[in-house]
């Protein structure tokens, strides 16, 4: 049983011209034969390179209501069409009494661009970005039914298995899935552009390159009036990318569905404001799924306080991820392991007593402890040398940097062997 993803292209002149069909063939019963392979769905004006809707051309500029109006209404038309294909599920009243059945949303509450369908052993997931779509499912007949319904509503072009989506290249094999932005990185190297444009493009590159996340975080603080030393530092990042533009993330096929989290902070690292930097890394088994580098909004008066604020931010991310995984049918009943290298912060999390030294971080204390008592997370100490989130909070030496890159799951499939 494999995933089924299909790609589509919608000509720009046909978006919204056809009214959505009021009905469609429902997905087949679970008795249908599962799909043996992976195919992909993407919808966009260019069937080869998916992109969001662009402004109307000069030929339609004389009638802004007709051209630009339909362009703005197309995303809503797509959402209405998907809602009609995926009928909302229903549930009986929670008190067990007889009464009306209450409709449940057929889109994820964690991400409203994710549409879900489940009936028995058959499932379909549709992810929408403006006029680009990705379809995933475990039944080829159900996928074909959805594609036929969507093709009746819009003029689409099948792009076959998912290989390229919004600048992200996907390569699937028996060992797992490899995601990279090699073409996007090469485009940056061929034309870097002004400083602001360069940093913005590097920020998008961090989707599959967490190794440059901290460097981009530092450079993005000087967008207002960059100096020559900031430009030289940005060129160092380009030099690093040029050595291995094809590096990306590898998601193993046999990865367990257990969430592991590493959070860290660099206390008072900003020389101007003395605010600390928060960094965390979340993996689903051996597959990286979320990471972040962000300066804390307030000044921490101790390293323990900075670490604890980092734990609070990470816990918020875990709460959202658990809800998102539930939308995909992944029930995470075991506590999520949160690793921290600061013993004082771990003691604050496990100690239910507040005192004057921790009163100013009481809100963060209450939230983290609430999640601990609920059994959603469990804390553990990790040695600083094994702290994966270190790469998101500070500059590291060459040996430690490459060691943590390997821990992040960063691979280069195009490297000579």
Automatic annotation (TrEMBL):
One Pfam family cited in the UniProt record for this chain: RVT_2
Origin superkingdom: Eukaryota
Region of interest: Disordered: 1-64
Annotated ranges, domain Reverse transcriptase Ty1/copia-type: 108-191
Biased composition (Low complexity): 50-64
InterPro entries hit by this protein: DNA/RNA_pol_sf, RVT_2
Protein name: Reverse transcriptase Ty1/copia-type domain-containing protein
